[in-house]
Amino acid sequence: MRITQSMVSTRVLSDLENASNRLSKTEEKLSSGKSITKPSDNPFGTSQALSLSGSLESTKQYESNVNDATAWSNLTDTTLGSVENATQRARELLVQAGNDTNSTSDRSAMADEIDQLIEAIKGDANAQYNGQYIFAGTKTGTAPYTVGGSPPNDSYNGNTGGVYRQIGPGVSVQINTVGSDVLGNGTPGDGGLLSVLRQASADMRSGTAASADSLRTTDLSSLDTAMAKLSSAQAVVGATSNRLTSATNRLTQIEQATTGLLSDTTDADMAQTMTDFSMQSNVYQAALQAGAHIVQTSLLDFLS
After folding, report:
1. How many domains does the chain have?
2. Does the pLDDT value for residue 214 go beyond 50?
3. Taking a C-beta distance cutoff of 8 angstroms, is the pair 186, 226 a contact?
4. Which residues contact 299 (CB under 8 A, 6 or more apart)?
5. What does pTM read for this prediction?
6. b vs e for 196-221, b when ≥16 Cβ sit within 10 Å of the residue's Cβ?
7. What is the mean pLDDT of the chain?
8. CA distance 70 to 268
9. Please, which pLDDT band fits residue 229 given cuts at 50, 70 and 90?
10. Which of 202, 177, 176 lies closest to 188, judged by CA?
11. pLDDT for 70-111, tens place per residue?
12. Most buried pick, 23, 135, 218, 297, via CB within 10 A?
C-alpha cells in the first residue's frame, strides 16, 4: 500500500492531538487538585464520592444537632443549679422559722423572703435558649410560669411534651426537662416545689402553734422531697450531657474518617501528577519537533 503525504500528515496530527489531550487533562488535575473532574473520568470513583459526600453531610448535620442539644443541656444544668441555690436558702429559712424563739414578725420577714425566692425560681424556669423556653415542654413559645402579679400565679403554662434531637441514624435523645416535673403545676398540695414553698410561707405568717409545728415536720419533709426531685432532674441532665459528649467524639471520628476516604477517592496525587505533567510535556514537545521533520514540504511552499 502506498503511503501518501496526506496519510502521514493525518497520523501526525492525530498523535499530536492525543498527546495534547493527555497533557490538558493532567494540567486540569494540577489546577483543581482533583483526580475526578467529571463523572466520565472515573464512573465508579464518582459513585463512591457521591456516597461519601452524602455520608459526610449527614454526619455534619448530626454534629450540628449535638451542638444545639449540648447548648440546651448546659443552660438547663445552669438554671437547675440556680434553682437549687434558691431552694437551699429556702430550706435554711424553713429550719430557722421552726425555732420557737422567733417572733411573729421574724417569721413574717422570712415568709417575705420565701415569696421572693419563689418568684426568682419561676424567673429561672422561664429561661430561654435561642428564643425557646426550655422548661415549657414542646410549647417552647410560651413562658412556663408567670412572674409577679397580684395575687401570685404559680400555674404551669407549658405541657409535658419532650423535645428531641437526632444525634445519629435512628438515634434521638430528649434534651428538655419539663418544668412541672420539678416545680409542680402550682396547685396546692401537688407536692411541687412551688406549692411546698407557698405552704411554708403561709405557715410562717399564720402565727399558730400548729403552723409552727408544721414548719418543723410536714413542711420540711415536703421540701426535702421536692429537693430530691430537683436532684433527680439534675442527674438526668448530667447523664444527657455525658451522652452528648460521647456522641460528639464519635461523630468527630466519623467525619475525619469519611473526609479521608473522600480525599483518597477524589484528590489527585500531586507528586505523581507533577511527574506525569513533566513527562507528557516533554513528549508533546518532542512530537511537535518530530512532526515538523516527518511532514514533507509540499510544492505550495515553493510557490510565491
Report:
1. 1
2. yes
3. no
4. none
5. 0.75
6. bbbbbbebbbbeeeebbebbbeebbe
7. 83
8. 38
9. very high
10. 202
11. 999 999 999 999 999 999 999 999 999 988 888 889 999 999
12. 135
Give, as one character, the DSSP assignment of residue 34. Answer: B
Beta strands in the chain (DSSP E): 128-129, 132-133, 164-168, 171-174
Q: Is residue 101 included in any domain, yes or no?
A: yes
Grid coordinates 428531641 are at which residue?
Answer: 164
Q: Name the β-bridge partners of 21.
A: none
Residue 100 within a domain: yes
DSSP class of 136? S
CB 89 within 8 A of CB 116: no
CATH number at residue 171: 1.20.1330.10
Q: Which residues contact 84 (CB under 8 A, 6 or more apart)?
A: 227, 230, 231, 234
Buried b (16+ CB within 10 A) or exposed e, 223-249: beebbebbeebbebbeebbebbeebbe
- The residue range of the domain holding 192 is 69-261
Query: Cell numbers 443552660 correspond to what residue?
Result: 75
